[in-house]
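Tip: read the tokens left to right.
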């Protein structure tokens, strides 16, 4: 909880501090929290918690599920998209959306832009494909970082100090294609970084494959992964078209990201 007794308390708004305490608790619990649990953890009156949650829900900052648990809402995703990327103040979604739309139109497949968000991979933006059997993609999806083309590519560009915690946790096996041995995964990540693109051959769902390519900022640091999922059994020639188009679009997006604004 926030410390309300410090020297700057007179310049703060207590209800906003409490709201941030509520959001902080929801951030730590992926499965959400009920009002009773929040009251117990924050030691605030039930009516206060209820009013905060009701207001946040009206603004789509939290979502209440069918079991009465509150979770972080989709509106936060839109706000997060406007956070500075690296040293430059880049609205990554605004820059990327036209590229995603163009690629989705060209291929007829869904297209995603993903970023690392703490211990998960978050789909920051997406464009729907119009091709028959195109897979549905949507912003806000969260996935494990050790499986899938975009996820592994994001891990592959992390410095060792940030990569080690990801490999130190148990790695769940979603299919027989999922790499769960940390030594094998580390070797694979090194290969993907040298290769410059990644392929998923059914690591999360056997019937879903994908290609992904990195997007860099003006400091040559990877800020996102652009990926195109498609159904297993796709013709090899079309798969190559998807791979090349994914790489080309990621490069175009990299070029489109503006540098820091001079001050």
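Filled-in amino acids:
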């Amino acid at each position: 909880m926030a410390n309300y007794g410090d020297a700057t308390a007179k310049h703060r708004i207590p209800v906003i501090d409490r709201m941030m305490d509520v959001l902080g608790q929801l951030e730590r619990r992926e499965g959400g929290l009920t009002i009773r649990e929040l009251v117990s953890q924050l030691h605030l009156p039930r009516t206060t918690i209820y009013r905060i949650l009701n207001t946040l829900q009206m603004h789509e900052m939290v979502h209440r599920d069918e079991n009465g648990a509150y979770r972080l809402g989709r509106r936060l995703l839109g706000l997060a998209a406007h956070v500075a990327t690296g040293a430059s103040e880049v609205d990554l979604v605004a820059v990327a959306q036209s590229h995603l739309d163009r690629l989705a139109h060209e291929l007829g497949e869904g297209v995603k832009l993903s970023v690392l968000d703490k211990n998960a991979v978050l789909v920051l933006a997406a464009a729907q494909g119009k091709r028959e059997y195109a897979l549905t993609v949507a912003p806000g999806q969260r996935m494990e970082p050790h499986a899938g083309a975009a996820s592994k590519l994001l891990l592959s560009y992390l410095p060792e100090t940030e990569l080690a915690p990801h490999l130190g946790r148990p790695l769940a096996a979603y299919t027989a294609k999922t790499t769960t041995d940390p030594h094998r995964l580390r070797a694979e990540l090194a290969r993907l970084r040298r290769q410059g693109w990644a392929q998923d051959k059914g690591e999360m769902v056997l019937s879903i494959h994908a290609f992904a390519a990195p997007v860099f900022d003006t400091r040559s640091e990877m800020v996102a992964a652009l990926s195109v999922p498609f159904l297993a059994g796709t013709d090899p020639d079309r798969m190559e078209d998807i791979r090349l188009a994914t790489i080309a679009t990621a490069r175009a997006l990299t070029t489109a990201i503006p540098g820091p604004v001079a001050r």
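Confidence is low (pLDDT under 50) at residues 84-89. The first strand starts at residue 62 and ends at 64.
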